[in-house]
């Protein structure tokens, strides 16, 4: 047990690279899941800190997937916590919607976030992982710890609900 | 088919568009400031080690922060660590908050005793090294929350020094720990040393640096009879750590009706099986997969259950057909 001096993976460097590659995308993922940019930023930063602390348990190759899963799980917890305490009121519109953008565009974006927020948690997670992150069914099942069958049924229900709410055919 | 595909494309575009105007706030520096980084530590260490060099003694104690309450890091009834003397050099940040302190304890597995990680909720100061101190003190003189685990160190073991410098973590011990106590096997003694190494490394959060153990401020040939003159490396996690572990919920936790279980497992084909029990009755059960097969890697799953007291059991599967014992970890929890 004594001799091997395992070259420690440098947590700081790893986190720096992950931050550069994934921070913005993970915050956007958090906004889709929680409809609240400030909360999304908190969750993503917490996830990076947690990742740093558990760096030695994570295979660097799998670090992005691990981080993504952490963000999804923590987003779920954050929403639940908010639901219980109602301490934190959601922002109706994400920060940073520029004033000079078309009102219609802003409205459409808000409508999408509202429609997502109206979905059951699992459906929202599955649809966002499927269509925003482009994850495979298998990856979604692994990320959420549910079966592939459940991924399928959540995805189709969520897609149907979103299409109804948003009348997507007008856009495509 | 084309309809479904264009519908998918519409959804994809709608989701992308919905967050296209998000410009995230927060920087790497915000994260860095919270990750117990080495940079602020080094500022404290340099003068301390300069002093040590001059006096030709290893002078420690830099980590003891005046606002840390020893009563919370050492549960009642256990010896408080020695030499918890306030040090003005460390008291830059008075903020104390509840943090999850990672600490390892000894427990049974199908392959003998190994280490289980437990997160203990403790009042911990906010400085860079506070988590390291809390984890190390708890490893030596704390108690596991889970009654299935045990703390391996003899009563009265204390800490005199704790520092991380030049890539080596130094832990100075006090107490009757030079020789292996009677009644402790050589394997148990090695596991106790590993338990300290793993806990300190987890608290430090800087990977697995080698650990130099000192006794009464000086180098020592053995700790618990284990050769310790040179810095020690963490053992291979697949040998030292229990193959199925629950990180969350913690023992006796109160959880909501739907809760997430997280942990680490090294199991056959990464299969992780769980049951929620009341006595011998299985109320809920399911399975998930850890991220990797055959080596310790994270898993998580969600459980929904009516209010009540339960035992959560997470275990691997017996694929041998030989009815061998399975590895498991358990938590007593209350669903609210």
Describe the structure in brief.
The complex is a heterodimer of chains A (172) and B (336). With 172 residues, chain A is an all-alpha fold.
Distance between the termini of chain B: 46 Å
Arrangement of strands in the largest sheet of chain B: 10-16-15-12-13
User: Which ranges of chain B are low-confidence, i.e. pLDDT below 50, for 5 or more consecutive residues?
Assistant: 36-93
User: Overall 3D geometry of chain B?
Assistant: globular
- From the alpha carbons, calculate the radius of gyration of chain A and give it in angstroms: 18 Å
Shape of chain A: globular
The biggest sheet of chain B amounts to: 5 strands, mixed
The tally of structural domains of chain B comes to 2
**Total strand segments of chain A:** 0
**String of helices and strands of chain A:** HHHHHHH
Strand content of the residues of chain B, in percent? 25-35%
Using only C-alpha atoms, the radius of gyration of chain B works out to: 23 Å
Q: Tally the helices of chain A: what do you get?
A: 7
Determine the structural class of chain B based on helices, strands and strand pairing: alpha+beta
- Order of helix and strand elements from N to C terminus of chain B: HHHHEEHEEHEEEEHEEEEEEEE
Distance between the termini of chain A: 61 Å
Q: Stretches of chain A where pLDDT falls below 50 for ≥5 residues? A: 1-7, 84-101
The tally of beta strands of chain B, per DSSP, is 16
Beta fraction of the residues of chain A? under 5%
Mean pLDDT of chain A: 79
Tag the structure with descriptive keywords:
heterodimer; A: 172 residues; mainly alpha; disordered N terminus; B: 336 residues; alpha+beta; Immunoglobulin-like; 7 helices; 16 strands; 33% strand; globular
What report would you give on this structure?
The complex is a heterodimer of chains A (about 170) and B (about 325). Chain A contains 7 helices and no strands. In chain A, helix 1 (about 10-35) runs antiparallel to helix 2 (about 35-55). Chain A has about 170 residues and is mainly α. With about 325 residues, chain B is α+β, with helices and mostly antiparallel strands. Chain B folds into 2 domains: about 5-240, no CATH class; about 245-335, Immunoglobulin-like, CATH 2.60.40. In chain B, about 25% of the residues lie in helices and about 35% in strands. Chain B is built from 7 helices and 16 strands. Chain B has a 5-stranded mixed sheet with strand order 10-16-15-12-13, with no helix packed on it. In chain B, strands 3-4-5-6 form a 4-stranded mixed sheet. In chain B, strands 9-11-14 form a 3-stranded antiparallel sheet, with no helix packed on it. In chain B, helix 5 (about 130-140) packs antiparallel against helix 6. The radius of gyration of chain B is 23 Å and the shape is globular. Mean pLDDT of chain B is about 80; it is low at about 35-95. The chains are: A mainly alpha (about 170), B alpha+beta (about 325). The interface between A and B is large, with 74 and 69 residues.
